[in-house]
Amino acid sequence: MEEPQFKTDDLKLVNAQQAWHYRIIPQRINGHILCYTDRETGLQEMKEELELLTGIEVVLESLHPEVLIKYLNKYYLREDTERQSEMYAGESADFVSEIIGEARRLKSSDIHLEIYEDRCRVRIRIDGLMIERYKLEKTEYPAVINKIKILSGLDIAEKRLPQDGRINFDSGQHKFDIRVSILPTLHGEKVVLRLLSNDATDISLDTLGFSEKDLLHYLEGVRRPNGMVLISGPTGSGKTTTLYATLKLLNKETRNVLTIEDPIEYTLEGINQVQLKESIGLTFASALRTFLRQDPDIIMVGEIRDVETASMAIRASLTGHLVLSTIHTNSAWGIVSRLIDMGIPPFLLANTLNTTVAQRLVRLLCPACKLQVAFDEALYPRNFAPYKPVDTHYVPVGCERCHHTGYKGRAAVYEIIPVDQLLAEKIKQNEHDIQQHLAQMEVKTLAENAFVLFANGQTSLEEIYPLLFNF
Q: What was the pLDDT predicted at 423?
């Protein structure tokens, strides 16, 4: 059957706990409620209870169990925990706490509250993709935004300028920080809440996705007493997590470790962490100057954004410190070109660069529902030469466990280039023809490492397709 068009107001007739208890999806039609259900017994009793609950006449219509489960997961998303009541804005005493708690349980990284001409919505990002979770009435939206402003110490009267704040959220069981960004738009204020995990106990280099060879190359760079290790990749590619896992490995009682971050996403015992505050002049570059007077062994800079920060990082590494940082480029070797373009002399880079890293995150197929099918090489990008033949591959399907996305969890894909003496000479000469040397060193590109995940059936061609152009 064609999927019914369920309206938000109709879905609000029952909350998630009731929808799952009765196994129904409600739809208001001609003055009564049509409830789709897969129940075969006790229908009259359920009809009477629903009419008592809603105060409206109820008509039941049979629906295949698999289709009903799909709709329930789509419209009444829940987590398999003791707490399964998902509430809508009008039903919740504290809607902000509800959506934050739900996003945390679903391991979401961001919450987006958005307002348009005739509707408002709340979306959450799970495994890198946005999923619409709630729709709000326009009359309710300002109160929700003001609640967020109050929690984050922002000015509720200011609606014309962007604002940034922070919430220290304490649910009783979990404590974590939330970065708040408010942006004035055409129809009102859009809010993004970034959930920052304070718990770094589960972060480890061994579990991030390094191959054995890549991990060996990476550890060679970070275990040197001085120099720079730089990680590149787009926003949300896991660079910061890799840096924290590295700091956790290097954090010893005998070392002084300093970081300047924006924001501080994890807290690590024994590490001196500084929050960037550009409004008062505390920038990456100014913090680095002060760090050099703090007798550091290891320095972590959240991001190299400009030539001043790059120059200070070079200076710190030249004076006997290990510097870890991130930079925005498309490949590991592109880091060298980017820094040279910034104005860093090639001979300084050659003397200080230990390792360059490119990183991406790839969604993994849900093991419960992925489907194996025959593979056609015409699906590859044009001019791409596969690293080995693939006869069959897996495609996403979608089930209750993965919220019908077909994917569950993500893995990091790396490209790691250790800078040896020959590469240092090429940097000095500003040469870019390094492919033959990298092949001799058995350095795997992003495309090769991503292809391994695809060939092993861990992810889909769709997920790695953009990386296959980086050959």
A: 92
